[in-house]
Design brief:
The complex is a heterodimer of chains A (287) and B (194).
Chain A lengths: L1 H32 L6 H18 L3 H24 L6 H23 L15 E4 L2 E4 H23 L1 H11 L1 H6 L4 H23 L9 H16 L4 H21 L4 H15 L11
Antiparallel strand pairs in A: 1-2
Helix pairs in contact in A: 1-5, 1-6, 1-8, 1-9, 1-10, 2-3, 2-4, 2-8, 2-9, 3-8, 5-6, 6-8, 9-10, 10-11
Chain B lengths: L13 H10 L3 E2 L6 H12 L7 E5 L5 H7 L7 E4 L8 H14 L5 H19 L7 H9 L10 E3 L6 E13 L2 E14 L3
Parallel strand pairs in B: 1-2, 2-3
Antiparallel strand pairs in B: 3-5, 4-5, 5-6
Helix pairs in contact in B: 2-3, 5-6
Classes of the chains: A mainly alpha (287), B alpha/beta (194).
């Protein structure tokens, strides 16, 4: 029983780190550009399929892991510049255009890669199990877990210590005030959108060996990312991190002990958080 | 002993596999097909369970259509099925040769079922000399149809309209560079209980 607990704890935390990658991008984009990017799951799926295609044609997972976020982030920059820039402050139009973009991306992927469920093997260095005495656990989810924690620390450091990080936080807190201080919100917003979508694309590459690729995964991932930021609180990286861990644990242990109720438990948690702390566990009230 | 049910088209089996890893059973009998079989067996081997737990699965799990996607992690998995790649009869050798020539791929038990079904149809139509308007006669011709199948022996059960056939135990192996199944044992002629 203890081994089962430990195994499922690690499974849940690895999945949580995947959710963190998604929710981090979603949260950063919302904070700076004030856009709820409902195409976020489609960027995840795009990253995953590009990772599948590049990983098999270049036969290197690591090259794909480096290249795909750049490509997906570039697409994100183009989307921000040419689709969303003109809709600043028009929330309904932004929601519609990002939903539509999600549909278009997901359907293009289906047309190109087919509707069959595809699974990606982990890179050879991370394939197979790790033996720790009587405890056996696969290497790959451990890699995802460690990478997620390192990324959290890295992004937190970037946001607090670098000039760009300070600009991102300034625009998130008050775009009007930030622009009077010589920060160009448009430029920060463009870069943040690129970084946010690149993180989603990276999530796709990293996630594919854990969760197989299938049409519909985009909507599922957008939903998970939204739940995480609603629970954790929008606009703060700590909110995305702890929210992702909470959702990952509820999902993992829900699927282990109450498989039929797993999704219900997540929504119940979200409803509870919304009722008690509408701004999220670590969120701040937005003006 | 425990039973677990997973939704069709699952993309992640880690919760189920955690349970198997914790229970340390002697064997796992899995009934999965297509992508479910691929993802389950891949995650099963990521946990290293393919080295400690005997897989005794339904024929679909180790079907030739999914074996290449699973890879060497599947080697050694046992299954029961009505057909084996290594069956030593002339009809099977001819079936494999013709299939490879036409599709440039290894046949599988789904291809075999289609092949035999077509043989039954041809035999029945020949028996009624092409006259398919008399349905009763055509149905009787199906019931008594005799074909030479690559699976060794197959007949229609006139009582249930199910098949009476040989069932084999097979094991995944790499033969001449391809991943397929080899014959372990012949369980004899079995009447489908219907």
């Amino acid at each position: 029983m203890a081994l089962l607990f430990l195994t499922q704890l690690l499974n849940s935390l690895a999945f949580a780190m995947l959710l963190f990658l998604l929710a981090l991008g979603l949260s950063l984009i919302f904070g700076v550009a004030r856009v709820i990017n409902l195409a976020h799951g489609a960027f995840y799926l795009l990253g995953a399929y590009l990772g599948l295609a590049l990983g098999s044609s270049l036969s290197s997972f690591w090259v794909a892991l480096g290249l795909v976020p750049l490509l997906v982030g570039l697409l994100g920059v183009l989307v921000e510049r040419f689709l969303l820039r003109g809709l600043h402050g028009q929330e309904l139009e932004q929601v519609l255009i990002t939903i539509g973009l999600g549909f278009v991306l997901a359907d293009l992927l289906r047309a190109f890669f087919g509707a069959a469920i595809r699974s990606v093997p982990p890179p050879a260095e991370l394939a197979g199990p790790l033996l720790l005495g009587s405890f056996v656990y696969p290497k790959y989810p451990l890699f995802v877990l460690i990478m997620g924690v390192l990324l959290f620390l890295l992004v937190r450091l970037l946001l607090t210590k670098t000039p760009f990080g300070v600009q991102v936080r300034a625009v998130t807190a008050d775009p009007g005030m930030a622009s009077t201080l010589g920060i160009q919100p448009a430029r920060v917003s463009l870069l943040t959108f690129g970084i946010g979508t690149a993180l989603a694309g990276m999530g796709g590459v990293v996630g594919a060996p854990m969760i197989a690729l299938a049409p519909g995964l985009d909507a599922q991932m957008t939903l998970f990312a939204l739940i995480v930021v609603v629970i954790g609180g929008l606009g703060r990286i700590e909110g995305a991190f702890w929210g992702a861990i909470l959702v990952g644990l509820v999902d993992g242990f829900g699927r282990l002990f109450l498989p039929q109720l797993a999704m219900f438990l997540i929504f119940a948690l979200m409803a509870l958080v919304l009722a008690l702390r509408p701004e999220g566990l670590l969120g701040r009230r937005m003006a | 002993m425990a039973e677990l049910y997973t939704p069709l088209g699952s993309t992640d089996y880690s919760a189920v596999i955690s349970r198997i890893a914790a229970a340390r059973p002697e064997a796992v009998h899995a009934v999965l097909s297509g992508s479910d079989a691929v993802i389950f067996l891949r995650q099963f081997s990521q946990f290293g369970l393919n080295r400690t737990v005997r897989l005794a699965v339904s024929g679909e799990v180790t079907d030739e259509t999914v074996l290449e996607a699973i890879g060497d992690a599947a080697v050694g998995a046992r299954s029961s099925n009505q057909w084996v790649y290594t069956l030593n009869n002339s009809a099977n050798r001819e079936f494999i040769r013709a299939y490879r020539q036409k599709y440039n791929a290894v046949p599988n038990h789904f291809a075999l079922r289609g092949y035999d079904a077509m043989q039954f149809i041809v035999d029945a139509i020949n028996t009624v000399q092409g006259d398919v308007t008399n349905r009763q006669r055509l149905l009787r011709a199906f019931e008594s149809a005799k074909i030479i199948s690559p699976r060794g022996f197959v007949q229609m059960d006139p009582v249930t309209n199910n098949v009476i056939q040989r069932v084999y135990v097979r094991e995944v192996a790499r033969i001449d560079g391809i991943l397929t199944n080899r014959l372990l044992a012949d369980l004899g002629v079995i009447r489908d209980p219907g």
